[in-house]
Write the structure tokens for this entry.
Amino acid sequence: MSEKVDFRQSLEKKIQTLGFDFHGIASVEPSSHMDFYLDWLDDGSHGEMQYLARKDSVSRRSDLTETLPSAQTALVVAQNYFQDDSIDHLDDQSRAIFARYARGEDYHDVMGEKLKVLHRWLNDQVGKEVDARSYVDTGPILERELAQRAGIGWFGKNTMLINPRKGSFFFLGVLLMDLDISPDQSFSKDHCGSCRDCLDSCPTGALLGRDSNGAPVMDARKCISYLTIEHKGSIPFELRPKIGNRVYGCDICQDVCPWNKRFATSTSEPAFKTGEELDGPDLLDLGEELVKMDEVGFQARYRKSPINRAKRKGLLRNVCVAMGNWGSSECIPVLRRALDDPESLVREHAAWALEQINIKASD
Ligand code: B12
Ligand code: SF4
Ligand code: SF4
């Protein structure tokens, strides 16, 4: 199909009806940032996220037609997931912090379903099966680069894609398709200016600022989001104290961003509303629940949540770190129980946490 299709207005209406907050259309030309991406991998900044470095997935990132040979257009959609905290738990170490993106239902499913509906709608509009593939954080696609090309926002120094009217608390989704639709103008401005609030606030120094070409650089190995979710082994000792009470993901470099302080508003998607038990839960209660649970129970409990990615042992490992950082003797019984856990990963972090509590008690 190479004939240009023109139903922008009805397409925009459909996208809004589905509840996406904004969108844009990008061309499918090869990535202009592959050199940067390859250097980033060469430096080992991706840590254990091997899926980012697999040869086939790198070349698919560079050229979208390797994923869908007939691709002519990438429709990029974005959906706000922001929810304010109901209580001020950030400085209360007896509470666990889950990143905002993980407090609702799994966005892969929620947005993936909507993209399926959109695909069916497009089929009806053009009167034949549109060749299309949808992605929500699920495939070898440079989603932020596509979103920038589709005019949605700029790359902040925190590496997030930021929209000038909404901030950065949104998910991205992409529908690659063989329909030829005129692309939007790419977003060319950088609205960070001389601000460096995110760089100065990152507890682990994961954000390295812009390189000489203007690309924002992150050493993912130091990012709390990586350490608490993607990293499967032992958390480096020197980084544990910096994680504080963040048991799943991290929002600091977004929370401090002036664009979010000014523009973040609550999501209108009911599925992304914060589940009560994930809004700063009691750290002890969470630890007690997890030590008693097995992996089957964990998967059932977090079946519909992005949290199931960490698995029970990952989340319990993070809870042990948070308990060690809190340093309260109230954690001793649950940590002692974790010393007998079937997972050596959990036992090691529980032992570390008990040591921290001892050190604090003798101070
Ligand atoms: C791997 C990954 C991570 C890793 C690494 C993050 C990173 N900064 O690279 C970790 C686990 C740390 C992570 C954390 C988070 N993630 Co994440 N993650 C991804 C994933 C799967 C791939 C990103 C990637 O390829 N990184 C490698 C770097 C090199 O690529 P990049 O970030 O796209 O950077 C581009 C620019 O640097 C550009 N570039 C190069 N040269 C130049 C020059 C100029 C001038 C410019 C402007 C740009 C530029 O080239 C690169 C490639 O295009 C994407 C989904 C996807 N498929 O894209 C989600 C994604 C980026 N994550 C997302 C989210 C929500 C998060 C968290 C907020 C979750 C949380 N609360 O814990 C945090 C945020 C941390 C942060 N500050 O980035 C969203 C971001 C939405 C947004 N508004 O930006 C995405 C898009 C998922 C989605 N579909 O919604 N994530
Ligand atoms: S998510 Fe947290 S740890 Fe990661 S770069 Fe941002 S502030 Fe630093
Ligand atoms: S905090 Fe400042 S430097 Fe960082 S992304 Fe936001 S505007 Fe840019």
